[in-house]
């Protein structure tokens, strides 16, 4: 059994998440590409099934049901944008771009699924994340979303998404600060 | 009266955030993509898109898709509604200022 892990490398603008999921790759894949299933842990939208295709990111906390923020209006968090599919290898690998701010090159996300017993080892690499604020935001974002996926697949109650996200953002900010002071000494 | 207040609610809520006011200020110079808006904010693309979403639902901003880019522009109508709302208080202030002017000139005369 693989241990869950997260690695941040600020210098390279790279994040690596490893998770063990209780379902086989075939099931996990459907949660990566099917509009409704994807909406239950990340966002809804179309994923065109070929390299060069479009991938839509339609965020709407209504999809998280009881996990949406209790005190915010449901429209407050909707966001819609899109990227490009780079690799589409069913049940195995999905890579896609994610838009960046200003003139920065789009960042790249690669998700690889490997069977492990009855479950799946998932590796998510987010690279070309240039700005520090984006690195922290992405780390907290993926961490919270992957937790939601784990809970969804193991049929467990997840914590409130937005409370958890803010908690993790503070944690990653502290982690990045610690990494930097380690490097400087 | 109640109806007008409810239409102002989403506008004031949308304006009650410094990042969203910065976005509006940027758009007052002309249309911009979400990526352009995110750059000076030190905010992620996704975060900026959420703020733009709030401005769009308050109808302060309109979004148009140009290829993969989304171009945002300012919609001045709700701002005019706010001005109309403030104008009602301007009457009050103007009256007070007139009184002040009268009082000052009386003082000068003495």
Describe the secondary structure blueprint for this structure:
The complex is a heterodimer of chains A (185) and B (110).
Chain A: E1 5-9, E2 14-21, H1 25-33, H2 35-39, E3 54-59, E4 79-89, E5 93-98, E6 107-116, E7 119-127, H3 132-153, H4 161-184
Antiparallel strand pairs in A: 1-2, 2-7, 3-4, 4-5, 5-6, 6-7
Helix pairs in contact in A: 3-4
Chain B: H1 2-15, H2 18-27, E1 32-33, H3 34-38, H4 45-57, E2 61-66, E3 69-74, H5 77-109
Antiparallel strand pairs in B: 1-3, 2-3
Helix pairs in contact in B: 1-4
Primary descriptors:
heterodimer; A: alpha+beta; Alpha-D-Glucose-1,6-Bisphosphate, Chain A, domain 4; 30% strand; B: alpha+beta; 3 strands; 68% helix; Transcriptional regulator (chain B); WH_DNA-bd_sf (chain B); ArsR-like_HTH (chain B); WH-like_DNA-bd_sf (chain B); Activator of Hsp90 ATPase homologue 1/2-like C-terminal domain-containing protein (chain A)
């Amino acid at each position: 059994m693989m241990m869950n892990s997260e690695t941040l490398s600020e210098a390279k603008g790279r994040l690596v998440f490893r998770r063990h999921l209780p379902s086989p790759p075939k099931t996990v894949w459907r949660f990566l590409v099917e509009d409704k299933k994807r909406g239950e842990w990340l966002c809804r939208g179309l994923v065109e099934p070929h390299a060069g295709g479009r991938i839509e990111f339609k965020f709407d906390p209504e999809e998280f049901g009881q996990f949406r923020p209790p005190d915010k209006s449901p429209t407050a968090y909707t966001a819609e944008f899109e990227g490009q599919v780079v690799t589409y290898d069913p049940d195995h690998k999905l890579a896609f771009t994610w838009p960046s701010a200003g003139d920065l090159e789009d960042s790249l996300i690669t998700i690889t699924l490997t069977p492990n017993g009855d479950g799946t080892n998932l590796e998510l690499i987010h690279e070309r994340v240039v700005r520090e604020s984006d690195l922290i935001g992405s780390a907290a974002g993926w961490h919270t979303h992957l937790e939601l996926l784990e809970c969804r697949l193991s049929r467990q109650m997840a914590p409130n998404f937005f409370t958890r996200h803010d908690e993790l953002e503070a944690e990653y900010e502290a982690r990045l600060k610690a990494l930097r002071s380690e490097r400087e000494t | 009266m109640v109806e007008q207040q409810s239409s102002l609610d989403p506008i004031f809520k949308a304006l009650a955030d410094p990042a969203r006011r910065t976005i509006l200020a940027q758009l007052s110079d002309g249309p911009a993509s979400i990526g352009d808006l995110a750059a000076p904010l030190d905010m992620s693309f996704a975060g900026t898109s959420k703020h733009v979403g709030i401005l769009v639902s308050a109808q302060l901003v309109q979004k148009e898709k140009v290829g993969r880019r989304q171009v945002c522009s300012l919609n001045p109508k709700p701002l005019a509604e706010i001005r109309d709302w403030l104008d009602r208080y301007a009457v009050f202030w103007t009256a007070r200022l007139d009184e002040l002017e009268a009082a000052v000139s009386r003082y000068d005369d003495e």
